[in-house]
Amino acid sequence: MAIALVDGIFVGTIYGLFAVGIVLVHNGSRVINFAQAELGTLAIYLTWTFTDGRETPRLAAAILAILIVGALGLVFERAVVNPLREAPRITVAVATVGFSLFLIAIELLFWGPSPRSMQSPFEGGVNVLGYIASPLDWISVGALVLLSFGLGAFLKRTDFGLGVLASAQDPTAARLVGVRFADVSAFTWVLAGVLGAVAALLVQARNPAFGVGFMTDRFFVPALAAALVGGLSSLRGAFVGGIVVGVIDLTSQQLFATSGIPGIQVLTMFVLILVVLLIRPQGLLGTREAT
Amino acid sequence: MPSSHAASSAPAATTAENSDGDGDQPGRHPRAVHLDELSMSTTFREQSLFLVAVMILIASIVTVLDPPGRGDLVGAPLIGDAPTSESSDAGSPDDQASTPGTTGSPSPTATSTSAPGTENPTGGGGSETPTPDPTNSPSGSPPYEANLYSGAENTRGITDELIRFCGHAALTLAAAFDTSEADLSVYWEELSGKGGIYGRDVEISWEDDAYSADTAVTAVTACADKDPFMILGGIGFDQIPGARTWAETNKELYLHHIAVKADNPTYSFTLQPTVQQYGRAFGEYIASTYRGQSVAIVYRQSPNWAPGHQAGAEVLRANGINPTEVPVQQNQGAYTVAINQIRDHDVVWLWENALNGANFIQQAAAQGVRPKWILPPFQTTLDLIGNNRSLNPTIDGVATWPSYVPGGYGGAWSEHGLQAEIDAFEAAYAKHRPGTDTNDILFQVWVGNKVLHQLLLACGPDCTRNRFAGMLERGLQLRINPACTIDTTGLSMNGRLGGHEFTVQESFATGGGAGWKTNRWCARSLL
After folding, report:
1. Could you tell me the domains of chain B?
2. What is the ipTM score, two decimals?
3. What is the H or E stretch that residue B459 is in?
4. Do B333 and A287 touch (CB under 8 A)?
5. Looking at chain B, which residue has its C-alpha nearest residue A213?
6. In the predicted model, is pLDDT for residue B379 greater than 60?
7. Which member of B35, B55, B70 has the closest CB to residue A170?
């Protein structure tokens, strides 16, 4: 069980990184970004393209991929989200589903459906209660802590950040007080793309073989669970939610390993989400919206 | 100024400043945003419940897109292992084009006089129950015909000039290594230039089943719309059962790859073993080769996979080995718990698809777990895990097909025509698809096409759908190099199960990388 706990924390940081992106977009555009994880898959493919058979340093390739995916988030925001700013949020949510499918189609078109492989740049690790934590596991933890706290401070203590939060609550009122919704929306989508790319590249090291739709298949549901559990209005909640979901995920695997129930992992996620929504719908660290 | 107005009328604490939920004191800003007086429309609970519903929807969509196994390459050969014809060792369409008599003729053996085994064939859709006729001698008598179709339906998809097939497969295979759907038809292009089958060309088209059970049914439906002689089902434990059910319901002749055993099929045939048989073969191999060592089974928890793992586990237990059985879920991102359960085992049978299996092996290696892996042998798996983990230690594979590496094995298994077939295969691709990198998938498709070719020859110049089905139903034994024997004489699954043999393969160093080589050829039992 100790190994499940330890790896649950490390896996939870990845869930948390994806969840921070989901929360950010929700704060900026009041919509769940169903393409959050697939943006990460695209970043992996781009990094693979820049390094496969070439002398390009992995870090440089990864940075370039992150920037491209961030730019792609901006393109989507400009082309789809911004024109739909007055539309019902469900419309935009469906658009993000379409965006996810679009990314999958791009991956199929340019790289084909055959799985690819990109080995981890690190070998070995530190033994933590029986789990060998690789350097990338530690980087994931650090990245999540820095991002959640840093981003939280930026949003609370800067004019622009407050504008982002205000737009999340009421775009009309925020515009009335001078907040440019277009700038806020663009910022959140660029950052969401960057976060998705970072999370995917960090977790890819433990899953060297990847294919089309890889991140969506494996990480979107847990990431969304983390965002809902932590609270869609709270970045620190996304961090906490990620850890909670990661620990529950791995420990449920341990506890129900012999249950014979197919899909027990996803089932656990859904049960967790339903429990949180029924008992504390704003999430662990979120706040209730005023009525 | 809007901000001053807002500041003068709002209470001190602001929703926006506290929205991070941590209760911090608001920072000082020249323009504080006060939002308490703003009205909200929909409650958060309702929104969230709606989001859960949408999440379920997207999960369903993802399941369609990523299938039970993207990269699920279990069972590569298209329609099964080809039996060896005594005179077909040359291995190329050249030898088969115009002299059908040179192939091993279908010969209902003495076993055809036996009762249809324990399975009673049942008629479908009101037609009479087809039963083997024990009095029908193979020589000097009309060939046996199944009673499946009448009139024009019996000759659908076959004319004096053409035989039409349609197959469903994950076109991921066709697209592997930058090949295309058209690359799957090279065998028939080669044959077409040499007279075809009794003067007939063969046309095969493909519908993408996207490795999904649902999409497989759509693909089969699309195939049926083309009025083919027969529908072919390739690749995928999860796709075939649904497609097979559809074919049975719609009375479509269906020749498919490895799948769980069917109950009383009428229109569906397979030249491959069942999933249960395949799993049993793994159990037999491990029991005979690694007796005395600790064994674990990591298996996909799925109704289309489980029968294989269960059959193999039963064999192990019957041979005094009590394996540790570790279930994993489809597309599970973290295998740490499962890896910890297999940590102290010497041998691990990995019953998963190529992509997930590769990640499992990689994650296990990162945790210092490096047992002897036993799994379905695909080149993709070795390519994904890299040379080091493919060869240190070597990996064992159990398959129903022979191995392939570019250039062959320097004459190994020549008695089974392996090198000759590889040479013919590579020559054909060099001729028809110059620049294409040949691989194990394309080779298995080539061998499968050769099997189909031989069966069509055995069916005769007046082949019909009833005659083709009857040929298998009544009991057929046929060997075509380099594949394993087709044998429906046991009349399993109403004479619709023709695969019973397995090869054993091992990873080895070749051409700067790792590949598979066959260590044991076409054995019914690996004990």
Report:
1. 93-122+142-272+411-496 (3.40.50.2300), 276-399+509-523 (3.40.50.2300)
2. 0.83
3. helix B440-459
4. no
5. B66
6. yes
7. B35
